[in-house]
Specification:
The chain has 631 residues and is α/β, with parallel strands linked by helices. Helix 8 (191-205) links the parallel strand 6 and strand 7 (210-214).
């Protein structure tokens, strides 16, 4: 009799995260989920991880409503599972005990059966309280040991002995659990490491404990890993469904079914019904833009371990910001930041910290700018790293963040942090005029400004359903400008055969989407009153006059100075509105880029005369964000 190997279907959570950066609208995939339930599949990953915040950030949807919808379809007996990042729960930042407890209770309330709970640093202190609250909420707690492979010649934990040591720490901490998972988010562990680790875990745990192995196809070895895992004693491996299987996601369940044919193992699926599910699922996702990097195996990923679930989230953000051409450089820079950061497993949130620091090293110069998450990690604010971080990086991080290294338990630090907890979320809701509920408290605590935007009805949908339309030059074509009955006036100006869109609006000239402070004075041959020529023509002297006066002093007051975006990003908060008096260095607004918040300060003292952007706008490097009248 063959041994039944169970499989959780990850397509509706990790598949979305791995292919689309988790940006998928619920209504688009519901028919496929219904078909999967009808096909007899019973165990699904449906949320958590990036599929919580992303629904508020990019989909203008409520994650709790999504969970309710899928539970209503699956019925009461299905095992619906979500992913939690230890004390970070479903965000990049770690949380207080109040929010960790609220996470377990809210997810249980909205139909979740099992929560898979991991810590990227394998610090058991980060799993203890979170695991206790999951169990206290009546849910199955699947506790994790996180894994990754290291490049040849690099030593830094991540051996079978290290993983079994983490498992022993979990057992010694008496953390309640229903099952144990070994999770390789980057798919880089060698099959031999997987075999030795699972074999030793089975020996330690005995035959009754449900043992799971999870990986991604990113490095091309996931099927070999899975076969090694089941031969070593794993009870379950995770699989996805076409069209979000393989590549950066989990292997397809039909691929694993084929790999196990003729062996002593069986997945217990109806193959023809699964094929029909995949046909329906493929139709559901037909309009979505499939990033090329999500579709293929990348053999070099082992040298710069980037999890499949984080890779496309980052490439989607780089596309949003128009800097996708720098992606290969950032990936090449990953190896150094992993080694100098203490060899935490490259899985969210640590993988994001690695990527952010690699991004900074490429965009601003090596170690010139320390990403906040990376810096806090090497300083100990997220727990103990598997290996000591580089001393020079610790020193740079301490100086940049004005923080001393710590060995305190992170959740204790978070409980004392005046910026975290239910009271902070409650105040944010009240200030925004939003009704308080436990769900809204959790959204505000974990999603912060963007969560408040969603709850206020101000969120925008940013889901890529097709490749962006591009001009012949490879960039999005600017909107066509047309003249109006008054100001602003729009012109098409051709200089040396190159067309430019120019809009004149008072003392602002917008050229191809970028704003400049100008003073426009009528020439002798201009129409009476200084307005635009009746036929929309532009005299040779007009653009020359505007250019000569682009940085001149306005007719009243001091110079009008622009505040420019130093890099591409999203306008997260506007701190100083029109009329606000600011000193040089005062905060004007906050940009978010690659999930990092950056404060944009006033270049001069004066009065904010105009804010040229709105909250939620995507801006490019050099775009004008505001104007300050210098005093």
């Amino acid at each position: 009799m063959k041994k039944r190997i169970k499989s959780m279907i990850t397509g509706f959570r990790d598949g979305f995260q791995s292919y689309f950066g988790a940006r998928v609208l619920t209504e688009d995939f519901v028919p496929a989920f219904e078909a999967a339930v009808d096909a007899g599949l019973e165990h699904f990953e449906i949320g958590g991880g990036a599929r919580f915040q992303t629904l508020y950030f990019y989909c203008n949807e409520d994650a709790f409503e999504m969970m309710d919808t899928l539970r209503s379809i699956a019925g009461p007996e299905a095992n619906l599972q979500t992913l939690s990042r230890g004390i970070n729960v479903v965000g990049l930042d770690s949380q207080s005990r109040e929010i960790i407890d609220l996470h377990a209770r809210m997810f249980g309330k909205h139909g979740v059966s099992t929560i898979r709970n991991f810590d990227a640093l394998n610090d058991v202190n980060n799993l203890t309280y979170s695991g206790q609250r999951i169990a206290a909420a009546g849910l199955n707690h699947e506790v994790c040991v996180t894994m990754m492979g290291l490049p040849p010649g690099v030593d830094g934990a991540h051996t079978p002995d290290f993983y079994i040591g983490v498992l022993r720490n979990i057992l010694d901490a008496d953390i309640p659990y229903s099952s144990i998972c070994f999770k390789d988010a980057s798919g880089t562990s060698t099959p031999q490491t997987v075999y030795e680790t699972i074999k030793a875990a089975r020996k330690l745990l005995g035959e009754e404990v449900h043992l799971v192995f999870h990986s991604h196809e990113s490095a091309g070895v996931s099927i070999a890993q899975y076969v090694s895992a089941v031969n070593a004693g794993a009870d379950q491996v995770d699989c996805s469904l076409k069209p979000v299987s393989g590549g950066t996601s989990q292997p397809d369940i039909l691929t694993l079914w084929n790999a196990l044919r003729g062996t002593e193992f069986d997945l217990g699926i109806d193959v023809e019904k699964v094929r029909e599910v995949e046909r329906i699922f493929t139709d559901c996702m037909a309009e979505y833009f499939f990033p090329p990097e999500a579709l293929s195996v990348e053999p070099s990923i082992v040298f710069s371990p980037m999890p499949g679930g984080a890779l496309t989230a980052n490439t989607q953000m780089m596309r949003d910001n128009g800097i996708m051409d720098r992606y290969p450089d950032v990936i090449r820079a990953m190896g150094e930041v992993v080694a100098k950061g203490g060899f935490g497993t490259s899985v969210t949130p640590v993988s994001q910290f690695y990527f952010q620091q690699a991004f900074n090293n490429v965009m601003f110069g090596p170690w010139e700018r320390i990403a906040e998450g990376y810096g806090k990690m090497v300083l100990g604010y997220f727990g103990r790293t598997p290996m000591p971080p580089d001393p020079d990086v610790i020193a740079k991080s301490s100086e940049a963040l004005n923080l001393e290294p710590t060995e305190r338990i992170p959740v204790a630090i978070n409980d004392e942090d005046p910026t975290k907890g239910e009271d902070v979320a409650r105040t944010a809701l009240a200030e925004a005029g939003i009704q308080e509920s436990e769900e809204n408290l959790f959204i505000a605590a974990t999603c912060r400004d963007k969560g408040i935007q969603y709850l206020k009805g101000e969120a925008r949908v940013n889901v890529r359903k097709r490749a962006p339309e591009e001009s012949e030059h490879g960039e999005a074509a600017p909107p066509e400008a047309t003249a109006t009955d008054g100001t602003p006036y729009a012109y098409r100006v051709v200089v040396d055969g190159v067309a430019h869109t120019v809009v004149l609006d008072g003392d602002t000239a917008t050229v191809n989407g970028r704003e400049y402070a100008v003073e426009v004075a009528p020439e002798e041959n201009a129409p009476e009153g200084g307005g635009a020529p009746a036929d929309g023509a532009v005299s040779p002297e007009q653009p020359r006059a505007a250019a000569q006066n682009a940085t001149s002093t306005a007719t009243t007051g001091g110079s009008l100075r622009p505040v420019s975006a130093p890099f591409p990003g999203l306008v997260l908060r506007i701190a100083s509105g029109p009329g606000t008096k600011v000193a040089k260095g005062d905060l004007v607004l906050v940009l978010e880029s690659m999930k990092m918040e950056s404060e944009i300060s006033a270049p001069v003292g004066g009065t904010v005369e105009r804010i040229s952007v709105s909250q939620g706008d995507q801006v490019k490097s050099g775009d004008t964000l505001a104007f300050i009248r210098e005093s």
